[in-house]
Amino acid sequence: MKLLLLLAMTLTLVSCGPRPHSEIRPQLFDGQRAVRHVEQLVGYGPRPSGSVALGYAATYISAQLQEFGLETREQVFRASTPRGVMQFRNIIGQTRGRGGPGQVIVLGAHYDTKMFEDFRFVGANDGGSAVGVLLEIARVAGNQPNLWLVFFDGEECMVEYGPQDGLWGSRFFVEDLKGKQQVDWIKAFVLLDMVGDARLHITIPRNSTPALAQRVFDAARDMGYRDYFGYFNGHITDDHTPFLEAGIPAVNLIDFEYGSAPGLNDYWHTPHDSLDKINPRSLAITGQTTLRLIALLQNSPPLR
Ligand SMILES: [Zn+2]
Asked: In terms of DSSP bridges, do strands 104-110 and 71-81 run parallel, antiparallel, or are they unpaired?
């Protein structure tokens, strides 16, 4: 009898023993919480690079990341642009873990909005929605090791995308990785952009790493969301591009059919990109699929 009891206690101890890390639970992602982040950002008004409103957004993002227990740092840098020398500010939240080759999963979103002089552009979807999703992911997955959440400034170009215009934050981030010889630390880069439309259809551009795109489809299938994800019929220049150019597996989860009818993108970069278009379920579909993707990537061999 005594022996049996001892055995039972030993078994209990084994089952309660330390594990590498607790499992990700995508269902904990709450679309309403994500919407509230977007409301907060849109409340600051238009948020182009260099604006006071973008500074408020940066402070809000940093505070939220810290509340969820992530270590937060910033990259502040200057660059000459078609509008003269400007200052930019990336915000980075890091979970526990020391990094190392192939160890880190990076999620990204831009938090600036495109500057328009002839109308008030608040970028609820383009500049807001993906930030809301990333902050809610920080809450749910902040206990996971080696997860970096990066909020890019200066995604939007001022005149036309090129080596001297647009993607300021992501280009700086990748150059910084190169300087620190940490390019090979990044197992995968997952970019989220424009993910809040009620008629959600994530259109992964062809300039994404095929093996990583396949993992996205696998994750979406696991969550019962496979029908919301497909390929875009072409390339898209976005913050994942500098990562691809550096040889880092990268994918862009973007819904580039943001408009008044299926297949149209006529709300993009217009006054129609407003808070009323942001749908909690779309944020949840994107967020839960991304969380499932993180779990798949944690257990997968290198993608390159
Ligand atoms: Zn845009």
From this structure: unpaired
